[in-house]
Specification:
The chain contains seven helices and 27 strands. The chain is an alpha+beta fold. Strand 6 and strand 7 form a beta hairpin.
């Protein structure tokens, strides 16, 4: 099967199968007519959007960017040879089962009354810890087939069926809407780019765009940093940081006692890694407002934060860290700035992550996706952004070796961290003792007191009235004398605690 740009084959009435469903789940006022530059129009609920994938399939969903929410879809498939719809459906199910082992399928059920050979399939699968159900129809004519259907969590499926029906029945190809300047180039105009540093991953990038970056190691594990530039210019660029340095460590008493206040740099690796920043967990919105926007302004002084929007869908499906409390938050923001003399529109997608041991302070970081382009190029840059993001593939051999090396480096870092923690603790204890001693002497000077130490037992008598040159213990009492003459048989001279400490 071949895929590529969306091209609707005339004569395939594949959407008619959905038409009998009632459509009344969302008020008409809450629907919008979308005219997409890929060459189609469709009616969607106001919080839904359309997205064309690199395969050429079109997805309609309230979470079209992450593809983790309920969705309807249309996919035109170009075949190398003619095949019946049932054979195509079975091949699709086989490929789905490779990704979702619990994927079940009922059918194919041959459909009658259409203008082409059509069949339907339905079934269930597990995703994000929940049961999902799907229905799709395959229609074939000549060397072209079309897959049309929907998928959603089981508990939402009944309410969403009329919504899916209205979306799919409203879908209409319109070649006049196609605008190459606003959409990603055709698949033939892309090339594969490989991480030049360690061969850790590959990605597809459009021809005419430069790519730089790859694996970086600011800490004990590998982080990714890739920047694409159209024609090598910063004014139209895409940056993906997974995650983005720095790592933040939350303020705790031990750090404060060592002089590490919020905003300061802290390096527990003994120089093996980049310094962390002492900072409370900001969340996605706070990261944008208090860290990302100020960093952008340092480079581009006229940069203005235009808007921020919460994106809880970014946190879906994120894996928990074993033995740790894991928190995810998502957000996106719009910025206006000038890059190399060009007024551009900027957007950043942020996934903030916090990791913490129970009862302890945490570490946090943010994964970033950023793009900027002149307003007339922004739509195309955004389409390219998601195509590039979707194309990343990790080298499995590299991943296995990296996991082994992280364990080795973790032990080194842990030992260094223990040394630094010990130094902080010892410094605090030394400083604490010095402050206690200064306070003791100051208090005695003000109150006219002296502290005395027993030369044999090291017991201390605090707060003895001062004014004598010598002090003796006799029959459990302290006696002061001006000369070194014993006040009685068995008297034992006591020593000033100040003199004892000096030694």
């Amino acid at each position: 099967m071949k895929t590529g740009h969306f091209v609707w084959p005339v004569g395939l009435a594949v959407l008619a199968w959905f038409a009998p469903l009632a459509v009344a789940a969302i008020p008409a006022a809450d629907w919008v007519a979308v005219k997409d530059p890929h060459g189609f129009e469709v009616s969607l609920p106001g919080n839904w959007s359309a997205r064309v994938l690199s395969t050429g399939s079109v997805v309609f969903s309230p979470e079209a960017e992450t593809l983790l929410g309920p969705q309807a879809f249309v996919w035109v498939i170009h075949l190398e040879r003619e095949k019946p719809a049932a054979e195509i459906a079975q091949a699709l199910v086989k490929s789905y089962k490779e990704a979702l082992p619990d994927f079940t399928a009922e059918g194919p059920h041959q459909l009658s009354g259409s203008l082409a050979d059509s069949c339907s399939m339905r079934g269930v699968f597990q995703l994000l810890g929940a049961g999902w159900e799907y229905v799709f129809v395959v229609s074939a004519k000549g060397k072209v087939a079309t897959l049309t259907g929907y998928a959603s969590p089981v508990e939402q499926s009944r309410a969403l069926k009329p919504v899916f029906a209205r979306v799919l029945s409203s879908f209409k190809p319109d070649a006049g809407l196609r605008d190459p300047a606003r959409i990603a180039p055709a698949a033939a105009e892309w090339v594969e780019w490989k991480d030049p540093r360690e061969g850790a991953f590959t990605a597809r990038v459009p021809k005419g765009w430069t790519a730089e970056g790859g694996i970086v190691r600011p800490y004990i594990d590998a982080w990714g940093a890739v920047t694409l530039k159209k024609g090598g210019k910063d004014s139209t660029s895409i940056t993906l940081l997974s995650p983005a340095p720095p790592l933040f460590t939350e303020p705790v008493q031990a750090l404060a006692l060592g002089g590490f206040r919020e905003g300061s740099a802290y390096n527990p690796s003994g120089g093996a890694g980049q310094s962390m920043i002492v900072m409370r967990y900001l969340g996605a919105r706070g990261y944008i407002e208090r860290w990302l926007a100020p960093q952008v302004t340092k480079t581009y002084p006229d940069a203005k934060l235009v808007s921020i929007r919460e994106r809880p869908d970014f946190a879906k499906g994120q894996p928990p860290a074993p033995g740790m409390q894991t928190t995810y938050q998502g957000a996106e923001c719009e910025m206006a700035l000038t890059v190399d003399g060009v007024k551009v529109r900027g957007r950043a997608y942020v996934l903030a992550t916090r990791l913490a041991m129970p009862g302890m302070g945490g570490l946090s970081h943010a994964t970033l996706g950023m793009l900027n382009a002149p307003p007339n190029e922004f739509d195309q840059a955004l389409d390219i952004f998601w195509r590039v993001r979707d194309s990343f593939a990790v080298n499995p051999q590299w991943a296995a070796e990296e996991a082994r090396q992280v364990m080795i480096r973790s032990k080194i870092i842990a030992a260094s961290h223990d040394d630094i923690s010990r130094t902080i603790r010892q410094s605090y204890e030394t400083r604490g003792r010095a402050m206690d001693e200064i306070s003791r002497r100051w208090s005695n000077a003000i109150l006219g007191r002296v502290d005395l130490a027993h030369p044999q037992t090291s017991d201390t008598r605090y707060g003895v009235p001062s004014g004598s040159n010598h002090y003796w213990e006799l029959a459990g009492k302290v006696i002061g004398t001006e000369t070194y003459t014993s006040p009685g048989i068995g008297a034992l001279e006591l020593k000033s605690l100040d003199d004892v400490i000096k030694r």
